[in-house]
Amino acid sequence: MGQRKAPKDGDRKVGRRALLIGGAVAAAGSAVLARDELARLWWRVPGVEKPRKEGEVDYTGARWVAASDANWRRADRPDDYGIDMVIIHVTQGSFASAVKVFQDPEHGAAAHYIVRKDGHVTQMIRELDVAYHAGNRDYNERSVGIEHEGFVERSQDLTDEMYEASARLTARICARYDIPVDREHIIGHVEVPGTDHTDPGEHWDWDRYMKLVRAARTAKAEA
């Protein structure tokens, strides 16, 4: 799955980190810092998880279809891993075939979302959790993955409905985690270090897509 880089949150041993933070807070006399840090650390205690509801989606309008739990890892993002990236994929197949392989425990990979040619959005993994989609552990932990139905060599597969629906989804993810809407934080699978994938391919119109994401983000902010 590629070479791992050090996690953004550093030392994840709760006891030592909590003590260090507690000492720093006491020295600084900052009750606000103590409250915020301890709230984040609480979700890292073994056996403690954020409340979850079966079939719940993170994006309004998405349909829930669960991926095999062999294709993702349970987490409590962004409290254990910060999310600062959206990664764009193309399925190299139909929507139905993508759903099928993401439900296959032998496949070893799945993305959080699939966007169909008609703009329908399916969520298969919660954003809380780490999906195995990027081929790089560090990028998996810090990103949300979006698949798009079609083939990289077929420009006709990239429909208006798909671009618009995907842009609204990406804009919402960026707003939720305060991710900058730029090409450093919204990238293609081909740009992930160590990957051998080429998607979303030469036909993916990045200028058009980024304009749609910015427009959707602005419209949401003004609503």
> How many angstroms does the end-to-end distance come to?
40 Å
Strand content: 5-15%
- In round numbers, the mean pLDDT is 84
Number of strands: 8
How much helicity do the residues have? 25-40%
Largest sheet: 6 strands, mixed
Rg is: 18 Å
Identify the strand order in the major beta sheet: 1-5-4-7-3-8
Q: Based on CA inertia axes, which overall geometry fits? A: globular
Contiguous low-pLDDT stretches (5 residues minimum) are 1-29
Structural class by secondary-structure content: alpha/beta
Q: What is the string of helix and strand elements?
A: HHEEEHEEEHEHEH
Helical region count? 6
Which key terms come to mind for this protein?
223 residues; alpha/beta; 6-stranded mixed β-sheet; two-stranded antiparallel sheet; 6 helices; 8 strands
Provide a descriptive summary of the structure in words.
It is a single chain. This protein has 223 residues and is of the alpha/beta class. It contains six helices and eight strands. The chain has helices spanning 14-28, 31-42, 95-102, 137-142, 160-177, 206-222; strands spanning 63-64, 72-73, 85-88, 113-115, 121-123, 130-131, 143-148, 186-188. The strands form two sheets. The protein has a six-stranded mixed β-sheet with strand order 1-5-4-7-3-8, sandwiched between helices. A two-stranded antiparallel sheet has the order 2-6. α1 (14-28) runs antiparallel to α2 (31-42) and α5 (160-177) crosses α6. The protein is globular and about 45 Å long. The termini are far apart.
